[in-house]
Specification:
Strand order of the largest sheet: 1-2
Oligomer: single chain
Order of helices and strands: EEHEEHH
Number of helices: 3
Shape: globular
Distance between the termini: 10 Å
Structural class: alpha+beta
Length: 142
């Protein structure tokens, strides 16, 4: 469902007029919850750094770096799966409280991951995230 944001262009029209008028995501109240918890990930997991992300109308993209060299106490380094489980649980709980719909699903069961295998791959993923609002009208759930 398109509950997280809407994609707009600088002048409010659904199509960019020129290259300087790029589409961007305007967060809903649920999208703001998601944005808040993405920003909290490094607080919860100090060895995870969020490099880039975008909250789309019906999904998110996050570029997360796991830095195993971070000095910390307590638990060993979390996996991306543990991070995503925490993130989905927290956001679902809070979104459902706002919607007054306890127990409802917000996210799909799993997630799609991609291991970055070099600098070119890193920049391609960064660009993909940055340009995702541009491709929204081509999304299969648009």
């Amino acid at each position: 469902m398109r509950i997280l944001s809407r994609i707009d262009v600088g002048d409010g029209s659904p199509v960019p007029l020129d290259e300087s008028d790029m589409p961007f995501a305007i967060l809903t109240c649920y999208g703001k919850i998601v944005d808040d918890y993405i920003r909290r990930i490094p607080e919860k997991y100090p060895c995870i750094r969020i490099e880039n992300y975008v909250v789309m109308p019906n999904h998110i993209h996050i570029l997360a770096i796991v830095d195993n060299g971070v000095i910390r106490t307590g638990d060993p380094s979390p996996t991306i799966g543990q991070m995503m489980a925490w993130f989905k649980y927290q956001t679902t709980k809070e979104i459902n409280a706002v919607r007054n719909m306890p127990g409802q699903k917000v996210w799909q069961r799993s997630y799609h991951d991609h291991i970055i295998r070099g600098l070119q791959d890193y920049f391609e993923i960064m660009t993909y995230i940055d340009e995702n609002p541009l491709r929204w009208n081509k999304d299969c759930y648009y």
